[in-house]
Amino acid sequence: MAKAIRFHQTGGPEVLRYEDAEVGEPGPGQVRIRHAAVGLNFADIYFRTGLYPAPLPSGIGTEAAGTVVSVGPDVTSVSVGDHVTYTGAYNTLGAYCTERVIDAAPLIKLPDDIPFETAAAMTMRGFTASYLMRRIYAFNAGDTILLHAAAGGVGLIVSQWAKLLGLTVIGTVSNDAKAEVARAHGCDYTIDYSREDVAKRVRELTNGVGVNVVFDSVGKDTFEASLDSLKRRGLMVCVGTASGPIPPFNPQLLAHKGSLYLTRPALADYIADPAEKAELAAELFGHVAAGRIRIEINQKYALEDAVQAHRDLESRKTTGSSVFVLEQ
């Protein structure tokens, strides 16, 4: 029988349960997938804690890769035997499982040279990096970015992509080991936020000017320092709230700090259009297949170890990407 991780109430990692799961057969527009690898993302914690509401009991996880084992009526985009990956939000919730029925629309066929584990580690993170690099701001060679959580899964991809565009990358990290990882993947400078004043150090590194763009996935703890790191008319991109939601603030603050811009993008809005999604996927897969961007899978778990995986992720023990590897 298929297995799945579900939660029946919101809370800490201990609410996750490893359960038997009835899968059933796909209906119109649906397929059945046997997963080979499942991605672990910080967004999963938001669902588990209730920050992103879901009807209970609920499955968890929004990203996985595997093989199509059956297709329902009216499905023409994929066939039985295809290797596929997917990511999303509510439309793909429930990825922590061995098999599932899912709508065919979110599925992306995998190129032959992208393995399942790589796909599960990079689809959400890679798409996030791709829209940050290609849709959020019109970068020019020589621009400078501040990248929080530079040693994380998204951070390592963004750093490498930024170097392909000729950008200078300043990354924040929490310790020397993570600084070494970040520099190995393209960060020109690293700042240890546990012992350095981030905004002050950014000003020193940019001769007082500040950076063009800040990518901030931390939220509450870094918000003010991020704003203070921007150059006049710079862009603050809030891409996550790992430390908690950003408190309410008066937008006049943005004017006081240099007529700054602020955006809080969501991946779903950048892959909603099939043509744009295909374009982003082609560029992402091309970079990975050619070795221009390396996907670092530094943590692997069995599905039944989801509680420990969430504990590791929340405690910021992880670097790069984390995946659940399933027996085939």
Automatic annotation (TrEMBL):
Keywords: NADP, Oxidoreductase. GO terms for molecular function: mRNA 3'-UTR AU-rich region binding; NADPH binding; quinone reductase (NADPH) activity; zinc ion binding. It comes from the Bacteria. The keyword Oxidoreductase applies. Residues 11-324 form the Enoyl reductase (ER) domain. InterPro entries: ADH-like_C (IPR013149), ADH-like_N (IPR013154), ER (IPR020843), GroES-like_sf (IPR011032), NAD(P)-bd_dom_sf (IPR036291), QOR-like (IPR047618), Quin_OxRdtase/zeta-crystal_CS (IPR002364). One of its GO terms (cellular component) is cytosol. Gene3D superfamilies: Medium-chain alcohol dehydrogenases, catalytic domain, NAD(P)-binding Rossmann-like Domain. This is Alcohol dehydrogenase. It comes from Caballeronia choica.
